[in-house]
Amino acid sequence: MSKPQRLALLPSETARAEEAASALAEAHEFVPLEEADVAVVLGGDGHMLHVLHQMLDTGRVIPAYGLNLGTVGFLMNKPKSSRALAERVARARPLAVTPLSMTATTGSGGSETFCAINEVSLLRETRQTALLEVSVNGKVRIPALACDGILVATPAGSTAYNLSANGPILPLGSAMLALTPISPFRPRRWRGAILPDHYEIAFRVLDPEKRPVAAVADQKELRDILAVKVKVAREHQLTLLFDPGKTLEERIFAEQFQF
Predict the structure, then answer these.
(1) 246, pLDDT greater than 70
(2) Is 207 a catalytic site residue?
(3) CATH topology of domain 7-98+237-255
(4) Per-residue DSSP letters for 124-172?
């Protein structure tokens, strides 16, 4: 018989999540995150991203099983079930999620690196459009893109901000990235690209004083950006757990048939 998994309970700060956490704590025994085999995350997609980034920051990366007590819950499982939580976690199917690594150079000459599970985006800071040079694998593909911004999305994140910006939905396991402009002005006809995920994508901010740009990796933002490089961070693979038949892959596939 396999050893029972030790679970950590990580609710968001909403009243609904805290109420559910209190009920679960009466029925189950939980341990601190540093002692757990699985993190049980209560809340929405934003809280799940927060917990996953917390793991990446601390180096303590374990599988995460989410229960949707937020709004969309794309990365989560339904909260109601006739099965006990420990049984649901034991039966859950793992899904590997590989984040992006964003390295941004700022106007001060400094450099910072953050991970992004959904997307890396560059956004204009003022009323002036951003003016960006776009390179792929060291070759300039667009010398000057005038736009509100641009983003690089993973398959897991392709149904989030990327989809709202009219980017493509990427199946999990496709080993592709979506490069999607946000309100492109020039070249007006460019609608983005789908790239193999072993490519490195680089952006250079043209005229940063007049047209300042911010870089955002999921929930982490840097301002006064001069340049950004984006690549897949295979060394930081994460694992999400889903109830059988309710995988993220199925949800992404089904999203393509929404009307």
Answers:
(1) no
(2) no
(3) Rossmann fold (3.40.50)
(4) ESSSSPEEEEEEETTEEEEEEEEESEEEEE-TTTTTTHHHHTTPPP--T
